[in-house]
Amino acid sequence: MSRPLVICDCDEVLLHFVGPFADYLAAEHGLTLGLDTFALTGNIRRGDGTAVDATEFMPLLDGFFDTHMATQTPAPGAAAALASLAERCDIVILTNVDDRHNPVRTAELARHGMPYRVVCNSGPKGAPVAALMAEYGATAGAFVDDLPPHHGSVKRAAPGVFRLHMVAEPRLRGLIPAAVDADRRIDDWPTALPVLEAALGVTQ
Question: Which of 14, 74, 76, 149 is the most buried (most CB within 10 A)?
């Protein structure tokens, strides 16, 4: 009999991103990251206040993932919650980073007590969530992500999967709009754990 499947995003769900990324921009490029809006593009600025062009954003992001993933710290309670779920569920980390970052991302998550399979993706997450549900033969599933569009994508491609909207970074919670296609919004792992257990039918 198949086990329930938990498919979880990484950045701002399991590992903090904005703080380490801002530190990287300042230390390596002399840039600042503002948090006036959620969008990263347009909020990265030079010392004279001018915004970095959108075409420069991806090289900066890739540079962070190439050299500074080790500076990311875990969201409080994430490792403990996933460890509890892993006793009764399969866990997959579905992250929108380039495939070349998979080994380091896998190692960093394991270093923080989250030794799970990492699947890299680009774009909407609905299709890969549906594919993972089929691969594992799971009849119950949960999806955890901070970005509202991904919840809409999963709702369309895998409507039976429980969708939990989580923004683990306090500085972003007021900037990210509600995910209307999510089943719940919970921003911390200790509170989310029993909700996920109930949704997956694995309540202790």
Answer: 14
Same domain, 88 and 61: no
Check: CB of residue 154 under 8 Å from CB of residue 143.
Answer: yes
Query: Angle at Cα 181 formed by Cα 178 and Cα 186, nearest 5°?
Result: 50
Structural tokens at position 122? 């680009």
In the chain, the number of structural domains is: 2
160/95 same-domain check: yes
What is the CATH number for 103?
A: 3.40.50.1000
The token pair at 60 is 């900066």
Q: Which domain holds residue 43?
A: 18-71
| Pair 143, 129: CB distance under 8 Å | yes
What digits encode the pLDDT tens for the residues 27-80?
999 998 887 766 666 678 887 778 787 788 888 989 999 999 999 999 999 999
Cβ distance 96 to 123 under 8 Å?
Answer: yes
What's the CA angle centered on 71, arms 182 and 56, to 5 degrees? 75
Write the CB contacts of 15 (distance below 8 Å, at least 6 apart in sequence).
Answer: 72, 73, 74, 75, 78, 108, 109, 112
**pTM of the entire structure?**
0.94
Judge if 143 and 61 occupy the same domain.
no
Are 66 and 138 within one domain?
Answer: no
